[in-house]
Write a structure and sequence with these properties.
- The protein is an alpha/beta fold.
- The chain has one domain: Rossmann fold (3-Layer(aba) Sandwich), CATH 3.40.50.1820.
- An 8-stranded mixed β-sheet has the order 1-2-4-3-5-6-7-8, sandwiched between helices.
- Helix 1 links the parallel strand 3 and strand 4.
Length: about 300
């Protein structure tokens, strides 16, 4: 099914004249690009050791919000960030209008082929959906999964939306209603809506929390594709096929992916789950409790000797 017409900033040179702050600077100007079929994926690798491939969420935002949060793990791992097709510094926006969700799984496999024989996958939110589907399609190519604020389906989301509406401010509710009922027609419109609803995803709803996305490049085409692909996302019946260790990370105050719903469902069905719940966090525990977040991953890596693989 063809998606809506989206006005974008262009596809051939998506990162000219932009930069990402923090420890990465102009990381996408480093020349790390991988051509995959009808797109070019921009990526950055830091550290030495077993490879952890990072799958960002959204959809509609790039990987920049994860960079500083996960970079401390470069002392134990080779951490590889990439912008999924049609997002950030990667090209391929036009392909999103007609592609199916599994194209993201195949892009991850193309990255894996370039990087290592087997990889540890980190997936946040929508990136967790991709990580789970990848592990089911390519079980012999993963050493483990780190799943943050994600779920095995979106069956719970209608209830979650009803719950958040009781505590959201009118400006947030208006933006949430707009983004759910009519896909943004431009990157700038999507940026405005995303920034308006961002405080809802944190325990502390102060608008200042949204500064984590100051370096983000927004993709209305990415958001539209992601929303369309949610209709048939459901891997609940196949979770017991995943043999590798899985670390589940959820925030107590995450209304979208509640720990007691999304997290509990995953933990009950997976064969080798480890759960960590962050009681002072919402959807982004790596931003609200960064030290505890990194420590939990390090502890899990040691317990399963992931770093020795």
């Amino acid at each position: 099914m063809k998606g809506p017409t989206i006005t974008t900033d262009g596809d051939s040179v998506p990162c000219t004249g932009t930069s990402v702050g923090g420890a990465f600077g102009n990381w996408y100007r480093s020349g790390n690009e991988l051509r995959v079929r009808d797109a070019t994926l921009a990526f950055k690798s830091i550290g030495l050791g077993p490879t952890m491939l990072v799958l960002h969420g959204g959809l509609g935002i790039d990987s920049s919000y994860l960079h500083d949060a996960l970079s401390p793990l470069a002392t134990e791992l080779r951490v590889v960030f990439y912008d999924q097709r049609g997002h950030g510094c990667s090209t391929g926006r036009q392909s999103l209008a007609t592609a199916e969700r599994d194209i993201l799984v195949e892009d991850a496999e193309a990255m894996r082929t370039t990087l290592a024989e087997r990889v540890l996958l980190f997936g946040h939110s929508y990136g967790g959906f991709v990580a789970l589907e990848y592990a089911l399609r390519y079980p012999d190519r993963v050493t483990g999964l780190v799943l943050c604020a994600t779920s095995a389906s979106v069956a719970h989301v209608s209830g979650a939306l009803a719950a958040v509406s009781t505590r959201a401010r009118s400006v947030e509710l208006d933006a949430l209603h707009a983004i759910l009922t009519s896909p943004p027609s431009s990157d700038s419109e999507f940026s405005d809506l995303w920034r308006a609803i961002a405080p809802l995803y944190f325990k502390d709803q102060a608008v200042a929390r949204a500064s984590a996305f100051d370096g983000t490049r927004y993709s209305a085409a990415g958001y539209a594709a992601g929303a369309r692909w949610l209709a048939d996302y459901d891997v609940r019946s196949r979770l017991d096929e995943i043999e590798v260790p899985v670390l589940l990370l959820h925030g107590t105050h995450d209304w979208l992916m509640p720990a007691d719903v999304a997290g509990s469902e995953l933990a009950a069905a997976l064969k080798r789950p480890t759960r960590v719940t962050f009681h002072d966090s919402g959807h982004y525990p790596f931003l609200e409790q960064p030290d505890a977040f990194v420590d939990s991953i390090r502890s899990w890596l040691r317990s399963f000797e992931i770093t020795a693989l």
